[in-house]
Design brief:
With 122 residues, the chain is of the alpha+beta class. It has three helices and six strands. Strand 3 and strand 4 form a beta hairpin.
């Protein structure tokens, strides 16, 4: 598990570096603003099996995430949607791809230049 955890940390660190650079900052500054070496990385593993009766499923209400970034390893189980300009779009499954959510802390740190992704799961 250690190799997996360190790989995820590297992915998150690269994303934070790119966000810093896009904001015109030094590569380390976003990570430093989030806690630097004390930054907490949280790994959650959720499994959503195909629903036999999607017409009865409640899903998860629309929301943003309170963290800085969310990195998803998707499956071919559909249901994730994102909102843009008051319209909902299905997130398409792409094998071997990651889904990256900009979350609330990045929106705040960037003064709104990066927007937290508004999502829902059906």
């Amino acid at each position: 598990m250690k190799n997996t955890a360190s790989t995820w940390r590297e992915v998150a660190d690269k994303l934070l570096k790119w966000i810093s650079e896009r904001l015109g900052l030094e590569g380390h500054e976003t990570k430093e603003a989030l806690g630097g070496d004390e930054l907490l990385y949280l790994l959650e593993i959720n499994y959503y099996p195909p629903c036999p009766r999607p017409d009865l499923a409640l899903g998860v209400a629309a929301h943003t995430h309170m963290c800085a970034l969310t990195i998803l390893v998707p499956s071919d189980v559909h249901g994730l949607q994102v909102s843009r300009d008051a319209h909902w779009y299905d997130v398409k499954y792409i094998p071997n791809a990651l889904i990256i959510h900009i979350s609330d802390q990045i929106e705040i740190l960037s003064n709104g230049r990066f927007k937290a992704v508004f999502i829902e799961q059906l």
